[in-house]
UniProtKB/TrEMBL annotation:
Keyword Lipid biosynthesis: no
Protein name (record): Tyrosine-type recombinase/integrase
Residues of the Tyr recombinase domain: 1-53
Organism superkingdom: Bacteria
Taxonomic source organism: Ruoffia tabacinasalis
Keywords: DNA recombination
A Pfam family this chain is assigned to: Phage_integrase
Cited SUPFAM superfamilies: DNA breaking-rejoining enzymes
Keyword hit for Cell membrane: no
Length: 61
């Protein structure tokens, strides 16, 4: 694994654990939050489904 691969994996794990974009930005040392968002903030299929499920439940109430 390359250093970049390790960095990418680390940030992906942080996001999956619920770390905020600002926390990951600080951890990676980016001065611009857009860099963090554009490169590292991937939304997994499960997370998209979870978000859709939460919204559906909200509409039901």
């Amino acid at each position: 694994m390359t250093v970049h691969g390790l960095r990418h994996t680390h940030s992906s794990i942080l996001f999956s654990m619920g770390a905020s974009i600002k926390d990951v930005q600080a951890r990676l040392g980016h001065t611009d939050i857009q860099t963090t968002m554009n490169i590292y903030a991937h939304v997994k299929k499960e997370e998209k489904k979870d978000t859709a499920d939460k919204f559906a439940k909200f509409k039901e109430n």
